[in-house]
Amino acid sequence: MRSKIVLALGLVGVPLLLRNLYVILFNLPDEMEQGPVYRIFYYHLPAFFAATLCYTTAMVCSILYLVKKNARYDAIAMACTEVGLAFAAVNLITGMFWGRISWGIWWAWDPRLTWALICWLVYFGYLMLRKAIDDPTERAKNASVLSIFAYVSVAITWKAIEWWRTQHPGPVLSIRTGEQRIDPAMEQMLYVNTLALATLAAIFVITRLRQEEVQREIDALRRYAHAL
Amino acid sequence: MRTLRHAAAIAWKDLRSELRTKESLNSSLSFSVVVLLLLAMAFDTGSEIVTDYGGGILWLAFAFSSTLIVNRSFAREMPNDCIDVLVASPASGASLFLGKAVAAFALQSGIQLICLPIFGVFYNVTWWRNPWQLLGVLLLGGWAMACIGTVFSALTVNLRLRELMLPMLMYPMLVPALLASMTLTNYLLMPGAMPPDFAQWLRLLIGFDIIFTTLALALVETILVR
Amino acid sequence: MDERNITFMFYGLAVAWGILAVYAVLLGLREQDLKKQLETLKKMVEEKK
């Protein structure tokens, strides 16, 4: 059943990703001030959305775990965090390439960048913490608490561009600003590519989740074999 | 009310045992002095711009020394399974956390007050320009470190690499508070009027304290009960 | 626009695709590793019985 879902998502997601790449490279015009390099933005922002989606799901599942004590929620939270880190890495590093051209530097210590990096480090710490605890219940409980704490820094990243006047460009999407700041065709592509990357993220999360379940089966078998 | 009374009892117990053994106090104090000394080697302390980064140096030293204190917060209870007794006692998780955090906060504040004049001497800084505001920033930033540190100390107390994991988890989470404290301290070391974004950083620091104290009080029970 | 602009666009896109591809490969490798472990363990348990 689950492999069918992955297959279906893959059949939608991968062609969509390829089509988007084609449209981004060949159909959409260069941006007037920035030139071709602005196309990085079509991955930069959707990757951020995908990562935020993953972090948010992880936070919700962590709360659910603490309430219901069902190990499944903990596994989902873990899978989401790991995939979220991959997408956040895409967000950070594509941003660096864009910044090298637009600002002339790879990294600016501007609130938005700083906070995005902090998020990455905090969630990396989450994975480290999981590795360091052997007992599954203890691990699930402590990791869930950490995930809830970590989400505060995600919330700060989200609001950072409103709180501080930053070097990082402000919000552009019309659903957030309430006005049309960028060309509708470009905005539409941002949404479509967000959808494509989110589909990819879903595939990753489901795959990772299955691996976590196999891992638990292995651990159980190990204990069993030990007891024999 | 009961929560506060229990918290006070725990804080008092922690402080007393620390003041008798001085196990983390000594190491923490000497470590922060060493950090101040080393950073003085790295920077040109004779120049005027020391007020531009003085706050940063001061808070780095505080942050390093604070992990040494909160590291012991729960580790102290591990021998003889004292932690289980504390959890089983009528004191709630929240009061246990509050007591531990207050004890760590008091020890930390003591170290900060000793470090401040040393910082002034090493770096040639007139730090008493705005003493009351500076004290306020020290208290707010110190509480942020004590609060986050105590929660994470509880989270990592059973780990193999506790001494390493605690700072690794704690520092990224603390960055907003540290950044605000550093900037505010820099502003307070500077002569002249306060820059316009002083209030904004202060809001960030206060907001950080409120959010994380609330979260910690709400979640600490789940961390402690096994 | 100069050439660097377009080169960096390609770098940026390559990095985006690259990171995701690397993650996918890592997932695949782990999948294989886990399957192998599971099989060995199952065989071991069977033999011990």
Helix share bin of chain C = over 70%
Question: What are the secondary-structure elements of chain B, in order, as H or E?
Answer: HHHHHHHH
Alpha-beta classification of chain B: mainly alpha
Major pleated sheet of chain C: none
Question: What gap, in angstroms, lies between the N and C termini of chain B?
Answer: 26 Å
Radius of gyration based on Cα positions of chain B: 18 Å
Question: Strand fraction band of chain B?
Answer: under 5%
Order of helices and strands of chain C: H
Using only C-alpha atoms, the radius of gyration of chain C works out to: 21 Å
Tally the structural domains of chain B.
1
Report the count of strand segments of chain B.
Answer: 0
Q: What is the averaged pLDDT score of chain B?
A: 88
**In percent, how helical is the residue content of chain B?**
over 70%
The poorly predicted ranges of chain B are none
Principal-axes geometry of chain C comes out as rod-shaped
Count of runs of 4 or more consecutive helical residues of chain B? 8
Q: Please provide the count of β strands of chain C.
A: 0
> How much of the residues of chain C is beta strand, in percent?
under 5%
Helix-and-strand structural type of chain C: mainly alpha
Describe this structure in words.
The complex is a heterotrimer of chains A (228), B (226) and C (49). Chain A is mainly α and 228 residues long. In chain A, 81% of the residues lie in helices and 0% in strands. The longest helix of chain A has 44 residues, at 184-227. The two termini of chain A are 33 Å apart. Chain B is globular, with a radius of gyration of 18 Å. In chain B, helix 1 (2-21) packs across helix 5 (93-123) and helix 3 runs antiparallel to helix 5 (93-123). Chain C is mainly α and 49 residues long. Chain C has one helix at residues 3-48. Chains in contact: A-B, A-C. The interface between A and C is medium-sized, with 37 and 29 residues.
